[in-house]
Amino acid sequence: MKQFLCALFCSGLLVSGLRAAPEPPNLIIILADDLGWSDLGCYGNTYNETPNIDRLAHDGMRFTQFYAGPVCSPTRANLQSGEDQARFGITQHIPGHRRPYAKLTDPVVASQMPLEVETFAERLRSVGYATGYFGKWHLGGKGYSPQDQGWDTAIECQGHTQPPAVTGSPEVRRTAEFLTEKAVTFIEAHKTHPFVLQVSHYAVHIPLSTTPDLLKKYQAKKPMAGYPSRPEYAGLMEELDQSVGRIVEAVDRAGLSEKTLILFVSDNGGIEHEQSGTVVTSNKPLRSEKGMLYEGGVRVPAIARWPGRVPAGSECHTPASTVDIHPTLTELGAVTHVAAQPQDGVSLAAVLRDPAAKLARENLYWHLPHYHHSTPASAIRQGNWKLIEFYETDSVELYDLSADLSESTDLAAVQPAKAKELRAALAEWCLKVHAQMPVLNPNYDPARATELAGKKGKKGKNKAEE
């Protein structure tokens, strides 16, 4: 009898343990394009209306020190791979700017992310996840598309409107609305088993446009003091916000709230002005903009929601990065096999549970050896110290971010030992990842240094206006 009761008890524990075993979560990444650190209501903006994104922060965790690459393709590469993009030469948007008469000749940008890279979609698919990708890719053309990198269901598109040939509708559609419909359909089709979904919006990338109703709404609204308050930008922002709301609603309607991590993030800092000089947005109090290594170019808004797992209404002040998304998702998805490629990111699973958790990482790095909105440079952050090395002038700038968020006081001259230490660490990292460097340009012409290839003068711009 005792043996029977013991067996029954143990059996009960086994069954209970199996029932208590956590199910693999659904994973959703919503990637905004060129969304600045100061553009959202939950980050202090009072002109743009983003109630759905703000609610995401209210119900989850808002990151205050989250980083991306300084421009589009580099971030998308490190997000997909968990590797720093310098390892495979995507250190500028594809295909990049060229300045044939500048002081330095910058490296040629790789045309695609190598197929040998194992994306988080490929790793999650290997353990049974359905994979869906909708929107901007910007990591290579034919043969290097999302479908070639583990995304079984995928629609790739750019721009703020889509033609009938893309949407199958009789009329031109707004991109944000179209991508949202595809995402909602994907969620509903895969609600009975784990899925990973990435929605890569084109909003709020230039050239700006929005619907007539939203444009009229914001033209009638009082501007925010100290902020450009562009009606076209705010309208586009609201389209993005409506998309987030509908995706969250689809998750909740399917009964998947407590089984789903939703991560919202931008691919780089906001573009404060077009190359023509037209003002777009402001990243203040952060310095500068997209295409530069000051905080305004690389610090981005990021929010995580997972009811019951991520503390509601919490803030995380631990520095984190888009390169961390790959290891985070693969850990949460219980991927056990080890990828052959390097892993430069670290999992954020611990800070998602506890925003005060520490990460096993000492430094963050950026490598932008190109002319963009600045000259070729690299940067390192260690604790609250940040150093930027500029290759044209062979000089460095040093900032204490804890006391100087706006990077207004260069401490390199008064802290030479720290500057030397960080510069050496940055150089060591560049060698480690085989970072390509700019070299002296034999065709340097100071009078034509700002010309872009095929253009004349400072206002020359490439097709993507990146």
Largest sheet: 9 strands, mixed
Give me the number of helical elements: 12
Give the total of beta strands.
17
Order of helices and strands, N to C? HEHEHEHEEEHEHEHHEHEEEHHEEEEHE
Distance between the termini: 76 Å
Mean pLDDT score, rounded?
A: 93
Bulk shape: globular
Instruction: Decide which structural class fits the backbone.
Output: alpha/beta
Helix share, percent: 25-40%
CATH architecture term of the domain at 25-90 and 114-357? 3-Layer(aba) Sandwich
CATH class of the domain at 25-90 and 114-357: Alpha Beta
Q: Into which percentage range does the β-strand content fall?
A: 15-25%
CATH fold-level label of the domain at 25-90 and 114-357:
Alkaline Phosphatase, subunit A
Instruction: Catalogue the unreliable spans.
Output: 4-21, 457-464
Computed over alpha carbons, the radius of gyration is 23 Å
CATH homology superfamily name of the domain at 25-90 and 114-357: Alkaline Phosphatase, subunit A
Structure, explained:
By secondary structure, this protein is of the alpha/beta class. It has a domain at 25-90 and 114-357: Alkaline Phosphatase, subunit A. 27% of the residues lie in helices and 17% in strands. The chain has 12 helices and 17 strands. The chain has helices spanning 2-20, 51-59, 72-81, 120-125, 164-167, 175-189, 212-219, 231-253, 295-298, 325-332, 349-353, 416-432, and strands spanning 26-32, 61-67, 104-105, 130-135, 153-156, 161-162, 173-174, 195-200, 260-266, 299-305, 314-316, 320-321, 363-368, 377-382, 385-390, 395-400, 439-440. Strands 1, 2, 4, 5, 8, 9, 10, 11 and 12 form a 9-stranded mixed beta sheet that branches. Strand 15 (385-390) and strand 16 form a beta hairpin. The protein is globular, with a radius of gyration of 23 Å. The termini are far apart. The model is unreliable at 4-21 and 457-464 (pLDDT under 50).
